[in-house]
């Protein structure tokens, strides 16, 4: 799976809240795993399984993991976005959509965080 680290000057708690806010604002479900990590879910697994790419871009099931931790140098924090699925349940179109969605989310989160 693909993962991407975003460096920010924000304290880990602030980075976590800003990151979760980006996903929540777009209608994703944020399922906390612990204090500084969560599973992000968008779309319907059953719709994607039944209809594949025909489920549509917004209904395609996508899953991410977000982990926030202090930066190694002690200045700010790191937000790690990790793809939880490839989108293959929706075929080749789904894989392409999943890659594109991940890049879009990475950009939105990076834009929301102070640098």
Layout of secondary structure:
Layout: E1 3-8, H1 12-25, E2 29-34, E3 37-42, H2 45-51, E4 62-70, E5 77-83, H3 91-112
Antiparallel strand pairs: 1-5, 2-3, 3-4, 4-5
Task: Please tell me about this protein's structure.
The protein has 3 helices and 5 strands; from the N terminus they run E-H-E-E-H-E-E-H. The chain is an alpha+beta fold. It has a single domain (3-112), classed as Kinase associated domain 1, KA1 (TATA-Binding Protein, 2-Layer Sandwich). A 5-stranded antiparallel β-sheet has the order 1-5-4-3-2, with helices on one face. It starts with a strand and ends with a helix. The mean pLDDT is 88.
Mean pLDDT: 88
Can you say what the CATH homologous superfamily is? Answer: Kinase associated domain 1, KA1
Please provide the count of β strands. 5
CATH fold descriptor: TATA-Binding Protein
Strand percentage: 25-35%
Q: Provide the succession of SSEs.
A: EHEEHEEH
Rg, Å, rounded: 14 Å
What is the domain total for the residues?
Answer: 1
Give the count of helical stretches. 3
Q: Numbering strands along the chain, what is their spatial order in the largest sheet?
A: 1-5-4-3-2
Largest sheet: 5 strands, antiparallel
Summarize the structure.
By secondary structure, the chain is α+β, with helices and mostly antiparallel strands. The chain has helices spanning 12-25, 45-51, 91-112, and strands spanning 3-8, 29-34, 37-42, 62-70, 77-83.
Write a concise keyword list for the protein shown above.
115 residues, alpha+beta, TATA-Binding Protein, five-stranded antiparallel sheet, elongated
